[in-house]
Amino acid sequence: SVRRSGESSFMPAMSTKTKGHVGPVAQEILAKVEKAFECESVSLENQSHLHAGHTGNPTGAPDAETHFKLRVVSDAFTGKRLLQRHRMINEVLQEELKTTVHALSLVLKTTSEK
Question: What's the rounded Cα separation, in Å, for the pair 60 and 44?
Fold first, then answer.
């Protein structure tokens, strides 16, 4: 659990978890999502190694950053349908999706859905 500086002691600390290789692309994804949404938790799993030889990761490099699974719990998704939630994330990560990220699996929940 990580407490950001300047947070009130009454705010729950945001939890950030990562799995797999965490390079500059993963770091940028986490930073952008954490900045755009008041997240209770964020989890990012680099699944690029599972797609070795496939489009997006043809060499199967262990440090590839092409395929990710992102889980976000945030009340920013309250009242939003699944497609709207996906569009919110896609808008924030549009640069990564246009360039380095080939596939992004999303699990997006509100705090009451987690």
Answer: 19
